[in-house]
Amino acid sequence: RYVAAQTAATSGGSAIAFDGTAPTITTIPSSSFTSSNGASNKRAKLGDTITLDFVASEALLGGALRPTVLIAGKQALVSGSGTTWTATYVMTAATANAAAIGFSITSGYDLVGNALSNVPYLDTTPAPVVATITYDRTAPTLSTVTIASTHTDTTRANPTHSVKVTVHSDEAISIPTIIIAGRAAAITTTGAQDWVGTVAMAATDPSGPVAFSIISAVDLTGNAVVGPVMSTTDGSVVTFDPVAPTLLGVTLTSNNADPTRANPADTLTLKITASEPLIATPTVTFYGGVIAGTVAPVGAAPTAQWTATLLCNHASMPATAASIGFSVTAGTDRAGNALAAVSTVTSGPATIAFDPVLPTLSGISIY
User: Fold this and answer.
1) Which listed site, 21, 66, 163, 327, has its alpha carbon 20 to 30 Å from 93?
2) pTM > 0.90
3) What are the angstrom distances between the C-alpha of 339 and each of 52, 56, 283, 298, 306?
């Protein structure tokens, strides 16, 4: 009986080498099963090439009898010679998404035709097991996109505020590039699925809705978010307003028979019309800031029209004749822009002539 690698002599004096030992696949390390993916060689997306490098215990036949290898359950392209071989497979849509990609070496023969003895050789065969490759061909989606300002009214902003775009993705993604008002946002995160881009607004930014764009982000496999993303998922909008409100109409009158004069029984009324609704009640004072007027909106606030009244019997009114003027300050629009101080009228008297002194008779004559 012959044993492996035994040599037999022939009658002519030549020798025939007998090889009865089956070849084997030597242990394949995880580093020999890789993907061409740029993000991770243990992840793959559509179009990536999976490569398996393996070594046999002895030279194997090539050609039609070259080793047969399956990657992701599909026939791989096998090249090599002798003991060193490589199998490759390009990922296609035919492979189930989010699958764990493995391999199987199913056949191979040494130079005398002995079949590989340790086939099928699977990714689960050696110890430790070869790490599989995760296949992900699906682009990540941004399931939540919102925009808000740091103002109390988060839908409005002025140059003192910042605007934030908040993003939540359906899977972990790389740091996204977020453009707000034409500038790259500073990015912060509370996790690989949650990101916030922030930009400080400037007086030179255009008035109106603040534009934003999320222009780049990829998942762990390198699939890119389909973009650019330029709208919110909840309909949120921030309106930028860098312009302070002004007073278009300012009138001061008295309910006296002569609206330019008043006595202690009269009431002064200041009517103002702003260039836009004021969210914060303006402050109105009379008589050089000594007396605060009673301010009320015309209709429901916020409104552009307001009135301020002063009862002329107020204890702080002068005891002698005086001109009563006013000052308007402190009103703000919805974006938080403050009204500039105003103490002049747009029409009518600038002050009211106040006379608290009763007339007296300087003399009485009887004729």
Assistant:
1) 66
2) no
3) 72, 84, 10, 18, 13
